[in-house]
Predict the structure.
Amino acid sequence: CQFVDDTLSAFPLTLIHPCMVDSWEVWDDYRPFAPRPVGDRGVWIGYDPTGTGEEGDGAGLVVVLPARSSGEKHRVLERHRLKGEDYESQANFIKSFQDKYRIEHIGIDVSGLGEAVAEYVEKWFPTVTRYRYDVTLKATMVMQAQQIMRKGRLEFDAGWSDLAQSFMAIKRELTASGRQMTYTSGRSKATGHADLAWATMHALNFEPLDGPASETGQSLMEIYG
């Protein structure tokens, strides 16, 4: 056990804990060791690239299986952290998921090495979404993630304490000018710069702010030969 002070966190433990589930018991339609773990369903990938190499400043990638209606939950299927990789290696790592999933969205923070990573990704995924952080964008992404969690619409494996701590590391504070509020995260070996949390928000941001339609009006038929 480890004590975590979430007093000033934008994502306190009371908000994060309900998202943590035993994925082996709850996700009976997810087969992690299969060539196509979720079949032909689309996924969203969020990526937060490495920075300039400071201690604890790595990269984070998450794969999210999006909810198909307001009654479903978004599920974080995979999370990965990279350290010390050049931009071409980071882009190739993202591309490695192409054969495993049908990718509908890739969101990348393009500060630092992010723009170079996005340029490589764009060669095989032209609709990659670039996120250029400012106070408004950060606030929008954080509030959207908070809303999704409050409605009980996000799940990830309970054993992923690094993802939980990454969210809890994000704090609300004044900008340098003292005129606006923004969201920041310190750097540490355990959570980096909250890279997994920001990566998750890059993926979730593909959903409209008012959420998916209540009913998709679609049905699926499986034929076995």
